[in-house]
Amino acid sequence: MTCGWNDAPPYDFVDWPQSWQSTLRAEHPAYDSGLSEADHNNGRLPEALRRWPGAVRSRHPDASFAALGTAAAELMADHPWDDPMARTALLHGWSPTAAGFFCSALPWTP
To answer: Residue 107 has what pLDDT?
Structure first.
């Protein structure tokens, strides 16, 4: 399931004055896949899944995913920084667009 990062810096912060960028980088908490909340714009389910015992979350700060089950660690490993949707699009022959949501394309095995 897509989690994202609720406290991510604004996308346009690279256009801010350099002094503002420096302040943000110095003061803003870093992404932590175990602690950082899922993006609230994705609804309540991603945060509930992220906190669920045994859930595994990918390390991508902007497009993180969370999974449960026997294959969760394998599915969430090696999340590419430069193409965050590439791996999920190839899983089990499903694409996120064809499946609606990534989680709906995979069998749930707790």
So the answer is: 46
